[in-house]
Amino acid sequence: MVWLKRAIKVKLGGFTLVEMIVCLAIALSLVMLGTVEITSYREQLILNNTAKEVKSSIEQAARFSIIKHEAVTMMYQPQTKKIVFIGSGFSQQIQIAPTITVFGLHGRTVITANGMLAPQTITINDGHHSQKIKIQMQWGRAIDE
Questions:
Q1: Which fold has domain 20-144?
Q2: Cα–Cα dist 73/87, whole Å
Q3: Could you give the 3-state DSSP secondary structure of residue 57?
Q4: Using CA atoms, how far apart are residues 85 and 70, in angstroms rounded to an integer?
Q5: Where are the chain's structural domains?
Q6: CA distances from 102 to 1, 37, 133, 143 (A)
């Protein structure tokens, strides 16, 4: 019974207010670090997907023009952030995300009935990162840089 009375008298320490605030600050900083990384990853993912979509659409329009022997016109509309492909029997639109800017597409670009397109470089930028697509359609290729 004596040992029980001694055990009751022993004070068990707990977290003080300062220790609790420090632990909370560390936990919040770890959560915020993860949030920043997720945001950066999301921006990079949107940029990569936009570049792949533009590249595949150009290649698809070129294949269509070769198969059907018809020219396809590609137009970039910076006000609405759209890339429009128009041809006889071919129509496609790409909606670009509001945070993305496209450089290198000026006015109307024509993909000939042979599937040829004047060589050019398209730069897709999100303010932090950029990707370049080299159009070498004289040789039948669009390559990432």
A1: minor pseudopilin epsh fold (3.55.40)
A2: 6
A3: helix
A4: 13
A5: 20-144
A6: 82, 25, 11, 16
- Residue with more model confidence, 15 or 99: 99
Q: Model confidence over 52-111: pLDDT tens digits?
A: 999 999 999 988 998 999 999 999 998 999 999 999 888 999 999 999 999 988 788 898
pLDDT of residue 70: 92
Alpha-carbon separation of residue 12 from 9, 15, 17 (angstroms): 9, 10, 16
Residues 6+ apart with CB under 8 A from 78: 102
Q: Which amino acid is at 82?
A: K
pLDDT (tens digit, 9 = 90+) per residue, 115-125? 888 888 999 99
134 membership: H or E segment, kind and range: strand 130-136
